[in-house]
Amino acid sequence: MDLERYQRQMLFAGLGLEGQRRLAAATVALIGVGATGSVLANALVRAGVGRLRIADRDYVELHNLQRQMLFDERDAGEGRPKAIAAAEKLRAVNSAVTIEPLVVDVNSETIDEVAHGADLLLDGSDNFEVRYLINDVCVERSIPWIYCGALASYGMTMNITPGGPCFRCIFPEAPAPGTAPTCDTAGVLGTAVGTVASIAASEAIKLLVGRGTPNPGLISIDVWELSFDVVSLGPPRPDCPACGQRNFAYLYGEAAARTTSLCGRDAVQVRPGGSSYIDLHELAGRLREAGVAQLRLTEHLLRFTVSGCELTVFPDARAIVKGTEDETYARTLYARWIGM
Ligand SMILES: [Zn+2]
């Protein structure tokens, strides 16, 4: 191992040569390489993690570049898969790191391929459903993971480690589809992403080398209000479905979202797991605020067009995405505009 490139961080007493060796021996799986994921991947590859697996279902668009720092105008112009574009950039930065891009929708069927052999999972995703899935697989298999999310001017991060409270102890239920803001409805500052994801990346390094003082709670930062809070967490909850009851509904499918291609209709049906009602009036209001024009709202459905696809949302939280037969793309649009 050529250690010369790491000389400045090995000089830092908290890490040292031993810490550097532990980093080089570690395998990390990153779920999602958008805004927070770009920061996490960049930090770990430059720091010299041994192996980084990057899973992402999306492709680069121009409006990503404001905050997704691994991508450039060429990636957006060609609509390259984020996992592939990220891997190429990161290999050019540090060829000593083994980088494994996976262009997949991370769900209960693909999570094994994503998580196998990993010492740590990192959340670069943008929705609760994937986080519950990560939580299920990590709690079941005693793998640590780090939650990280950013929206508007704020961000949150939390370490979930075996024996401690899990993500569902703290967030027992996902917000109902359509009720929580998303990056596409509330916006997001690149600096909020950079701040919270840098904290999460530091936590990842601490956990991998087994040194330093790990985050003991839920860190919440706001770069606009200039606040930094660490909310302490209680003990694991005995009634927690995941770590208390060991009922891994997101991993074993009972709560997994169901996506069905509607044959011959150039359309895909997306049905989110775990919820069965959506307030169409409220959703319509948020979409209008986000600049979505020509909404059609009736008592039975809400219809609107984004990114060349027509989405029809029903009160039971089901949506038909017309204009594509790509199930992954349909789920991406659902997560982005309706939220899951
Ligand atoms: Zn729990």
- Fraction in beta strands: 15-25%
Given the helix and strand composition, which structural class is it? alpha/beta
* Count of separate structural domains: 2
Largest sheet: 8 strands, mixed
**CATH architecture assignment name of the largest domain:** 3-Layer(aba) Sandwich
Q: Roughly what percent helix?
A: 25-40%
Provide the gyration radius in Å.
20 Å
End-to-end separation: 43 Å
Number of strands: 14
CATH class wording of the largest domain: Alpha Beta
Name the helix and strand elements from N-terminus to C-terminus, one letter apiece: HHEHEHHEHEHEEHHHEEEEHEEEEH
> What is the number of helical segments per DSSP (H or I, 4+ residues)?
12
Kindly report the spatial arrangement of strands forming the biggest sheet.
3-2-1-4-5-6-7-8
Describe the protein:
By secondary structure, the chain is of the alpha/beta class. It folds into 2 domains: 4-232, Rossmann fold, CATH 3.40.50; 258-337, TATA-Binding Protein, CATH 3.30.310. Helix content is 33%, strand content 21%. The chain has helices at residues 7-11, 16-24, 35-47, 73-78, 82-93, 111-115, 128-141, 167-170, 183-186, 190-209, 280-289, 327-337; strands at residues 27-31, 51-55, 98-102, 120-123, 145-151, 154-160, 217-222, 227-232, 258-262, 267-271, 296-297, 302-306, 309-313, 319-322. The strands form 2 sheets. Strands 3-2-1-4-5-6-7-8 form an 8-stranded mixed beta sheet, sandwiched between helices. Strands 9-10-14-13-12-11 form a 6-stranded antiparallel beta sheet, with helices on one face. A hairpin with a 4-residue loop joins strand 9 and strand 10. Helix 3 crosses helix 10. It binds zinc ion.
